[in-house]
Amino acid sequence: MRSPVIDAKDLNLIFETNDGPVQALKDVNLSIERGDFVSFIGPSGCGKTTFLRCIAALEHPTSGSLTVNGISPEEARKARSYGYVFQAAGLYPWRTIAGNVKLPLEIMGYTQADQEARVEKVLSLVDLQGFAKKFPWQLSGGMQQRASIARALAFDADILLMDEPFGALDEIVRDRLNEELLKLWATTGKTIGFVTHSIPEAVYLSTKIVVMSPRPGRITDVIESTLPKERPLDIRDSAEFLAIAHRVREGLRAGHAYD
Amino acid sequence: MKKSILPILTVLAAIVVIWYAGAVWLNSQWTYDQAARAGVEVTFSEMVSDTLTQARPVLPAPHQVAKGLWDGIAGQKITSKRSLVYHAWITFSATMAGFGLGTIAGILLAVGIVHSRAMDMSVMPWAIASQTIPILAIAPMVIVVLASLGIKGMLPKAIIAAYLSFFPVLVGMVKGLRAPDAMQLDLLRTYNASDAQGFWKLRLPASMPYLFASLKVGIAAALVGTIVAELPAGATQGLGARLLSGSYYGQTIQIWAALFGAAILAALLVLVVGVVERITLKRKGMAQ
């Protein structure tokens, strides 16, 4: 049996705040297989971003076990085994788009020739070929976010963690990027963890939907999607899609029944 | 540009008119005293023309200052001790030396403060305290102490200029090096970047706009520091010395000419920093 890429057992995370301890994650159990596209959905404060940050070793669980590629998240971070896309593109304004994509490659010590080749490759993956020499302010918000995805794809990490990457974009742009993200996932075969607020987005993209609820942050439902891998945008009108969306909505409602 | 020229000229004209009126008013006492001593009456127009042509007026008229300035700049050989260009050069070179020292000190201290909590706690209060001491009080002491050690000439002046100019650079750079937000720092952590990489690739470039803003303040402060340092030294060279000798001998026109010389020099220095800023930021894609 193949071991899961990400494996969480009885994970707890308690933040000490001025108003007393806050249980951000409670008894989280989850395993993610290689090649999965996993969405985390839930209202604010449900711990979906916190869980993603735990995987990235940007937060540290208080108790429980968590492995990434079979090693601890901290070791995985040091081994540069994931790319992380934040809610804002966060491109450096003093670097061109190509320069921004090159940033992780420079830090990780890729050769000059390798850097050039990789930049060209990932910029064409996100459909930004002609924009290598532009500066971020010359691009729209959606293009900037695509550049930040290219930046996360530039180095050899087989995990891609995305924290509400399209949250700040309008719905039309978001639809396009969702479609492109699915293609990207199909061509690269990466394991993707994706945090979102949007039910249609989660259902459209995922092979596995993790429904979470707040106070304390916990998993209320894990839904294995029955949708085919090939997903045109109009699949969202199919009965199957609506049934899954309904189950997600029920899960979110159940989470709220506690308070 | 064309739109702004009219208001600028209007303000300038108003200042000149008020200046002339002030000159007539402040210098008239001398004219009346002289007339009373000679036992003659002066008409209003005689009084006005006299107040604008006195050799040592209380307030020199604009055209007298302009003439003094022109004489000082263009009327002398630039190696002459009467040349404002010569004195401005002396002040300028000390200013630049002090500005350079101050900038380096400010940047190094800021780097230390941002990277070490101990330095953050210990250096910043002293830096702030250093600026609460009037420079006029500390400058003579520095000059005297250094002179007793045999250090004279440009270096003591540069040290005082640096004393004033390091502070804005320090404050600006601390702010600038801390400008990257939590997300940008997290991004570097996901790359497992070292502190040095974080500094060279993120913190330093992010601080550039802050650095230039504080360099403009710093270079003007360095000029003030240099001029103040030239006052107590018994110096015979530099715009400060020119101010002082003017006040010794009641040469008000000379004082005002030196003052304007200093102001023009300050404006030029800030302008040059501004041009360097625009070129640098444009090349870095940070200005449009």
TrEMBL record, chain A:
Coiled coil: none annotated. Gene3D superfamilies: P-loop containing nucleotide triphosphate hydrolases (3.40.50.300). CDD domains: ABC_NrtD_SsuB_transporters. Transmembrane segments: none annotated. Residues 8-239 form the ABC transporter domain. Keywords: ATP-binding, Nucleotide-binding, Transport. GO terms for molecular function: ATP binding; ATP hydrolysis activity. InterPro entries: AAA+_ATPase, ABC_transporter-like_ATP-bd, ABC_transporter-like_CS, ABC_transporter_ATP-bind, P-loop_NTPase. Belongs to the ABC transporter superfamily. This is NitT/TauT family transport system ATP-binding protein.
TrEMBL record, chain B:
It holds the Pfam family BPD_transp_1. It is a multi-pass membrane protein. The chain crosses the membrane at residues 5-26, 89-114, 126-149, 155-174, 210-233, 253-276. It is found in: Cell membrane. Keywords: Cell membrane, Membrane, Transmembrane, Transmembrane helix, Transport. GO terms for cellular component: plasma membrane. Its main location: membrane. Gene3D superfamilies: MetI-like. Residues 84-277 form the ABC transmembrane type-1 domain. GO terms for biological process: transmembrane transport. Belongs to the binding-protein-dependent transport system permease family. This is NitT/TauT family transport system permease protein. It comes from Rhodobacter aestuarii. The lineage of its organism: Bacteria, Pseudomonadati, Pseudomonadota, Alphaproteobacteria, Rhodobacterales.
